[in-house]
Design goal:
CATH architecture: 2-Layer Sandwich
Shape: elongated
Order of helices and strands: HEEEEHEEH
Number of domains: 1
Number of helices: 3
Length: about 120
């Protein structure tokens, strides 16, 4: 009987944990406050020279605004842990026509970056 009660609890918890993969692409730095990490949806909006230090990729999730926010927030948290100054992200979507009757799924791909002038100062 305990197994039947535990399964729904584990399912509920797993639905709300955003899973993120992070691939190191450069040196990582001292962690920083996540509020200091700038967020860009277009790399051309970044006005300072930068270098990539990691690629961040989320699991696929149901395409809803609240899910976009959750995975973007988790991406920023992970970038802050590795000392990134900013992330540049894109939201990808798997077309619904691939699986008729199934809602489309999205994912976030981001690049964690370090401003090069910050590296030179140290």
């Amino acid at each position: 009987m305990k197994r039947f009660l535990l399964f729904p609890a584990l399912f509920f918890v797993s639905c709300y944990s955003a899973k993120i993969d992070i691939i190191q692409a450069g040196p990582w730095f001292e962690p920083r406050n996540k509020k200091e990490v700038e967020i860009f949806a277009d790399r051309n909006k970044v006005k300072r020279p930068f270098g990539a230090i990691a690629v961040i990729h989320s699991e696929r999730y149901r395409c809803l605004a609240k899910n976009h926010e959750k995975y973007l927030k988790k991406s920023v948290e992970e970038a802050a842990k590795i000392g990134a100054d900013a992330i540049v992200y894109a939201i990808g979507e798997d077309p619904a026509e691939l699986n008729p009757g199934v809602p489309p799924e999205c994912y976030i791909s981001a690049m964690a970056v370090k401003y090069t002038n910050e590296i030179i100062k140290k």
